[in-house]
From TrEMBL:
<dbReference type="InterPro" id="IPR041694">
    <property type="entry name" value="ADH_N_2"/>
</dbReference>
<dbReference type="InterPro" id="IPR013149">
    <property type="entry name" value="ADH-like_C"/>
</dbReference>
<keyword id="KW-0560">Oxidoreductase</keyword>
<dbReference type="InterPro" id="IPR036291">
    <property type="entry name" value="NAD(P)-bd_dom_sf"/>
</dbReference>
<protein>
    <submittedName>
        <fullName>NADP-dependent oxidoreductase</fullName>
    </submittedName>
</protein>
<dbReference type="Pfam" id="PF16884">
    <property type="entry name" value="ADH_N_2"/>
</dbReference>
<feature type="domain" description="Enoyl reductase (ER)">
    <location>
        <begin position="17"/>
        <end position="333"/>
    </location>
</feature>
<dbReference type="InterPro" id="IPR011032">
    <property type="entry name" value="GroES-like_sf"/>
</dbReference>
<dbReference type="InterPro" id="IPR020843">
    <property type="entry name" value="ER"/>
</dbReference>
<dbReference type="Pfam" id="PF00107">
    <property type="entry name" value="ADH_zinc_N"/>
</dbReference>
<dbReference type="InterPro" id="IPR045010">
    <property type="entry name" value="MDR_fam"/>
</dbReference>
Amino acid sequence: MPSRMSRVVRLTAVPDGLPRPEHFAVVREPVPVPGDGEVLVRNRFFQVFPSLRTLIGGGVKGTPFPPLRPGDALFGAAVGEVVTAPHDSGLVAGDLVRHWLGWREHAVMPAAECTPLDGALPDPAAHLGQAGVAYAALTRDARLRQGETVFVSGGSGGVGSLAGQFARRLGAGRVIGSTGSRDKADRMVAELGYDAALVRGEGPISAQLADAAPEGIDVLVDNVGGEQLRAAIAAARPGARFVLVGTLSGQLAPDRTGTTAPVEIDTFQLIAKRIEMRGFGGLDAAVPWAEHFGDWLRSGDVTFPHARVTGIDHAPQALHDLIAGRHVGAVIVEP
């Protein structure tokens, strides 16, 4: 292959506070050369996700991703088109695959680290949404039942914008979410399956939740923690099931590193109400999320809320805008 150049986003400095575009650089480098057993992929889309703030802050022990240091290339979920692949890999030029080396125009990785797309979803970019997380949290972890009341904190984000719609399709009787602005709250009710949306800054979340769910909640899909987790405990019905998916209250706090999310809760209430609280169980091949998501997308029963940003040069600004809460749903860059 003739020598060509490709662009990659690298961290240039660890910020004091939240990352900003000036902490990154888009660098031109030679297209990587695959070795034995490796695939060369040209990325078509990659995901911008808030957990990068945690990795830049040093990471969290026991989680699967390493911390990012100055000079490192950023990474994340991506969909790419195979350029070259080993003959015995089952891949050929032109195949679309999902992998974890986003934030660059070209990537090289072992063939085993590529997952071919099977056409389950009508839009390849939808593979970069959080449908699997939302579906597994509701069905496997929370065991949502017909007629129950669901509260989704962070209801306009990548997980929440799908969890509200999925809860509705799965038979929830009432679906409540929270978000950071009135505009997003209005969209959640109009477009994303929510019966009510709470807004940070428009009064205590506990009071807003009590008004929206006077008979209490049965299920929590928690993407935030903090005050919103405390409010959910206060509103929980006996036997409620809580699934902790994210920690945005700590992850995006400007006065923290993004690696901790402390919250004080009343454990007497957990005991008295027999609340079941568990961390998200991870993606599981046995959970048929793609089949259901694809069917719902094709029928128009759900949408895939997302913002598409064109050009890798705009990726650092896209991360800044995501952290600032300027988008509804997933944020995807087309290099």
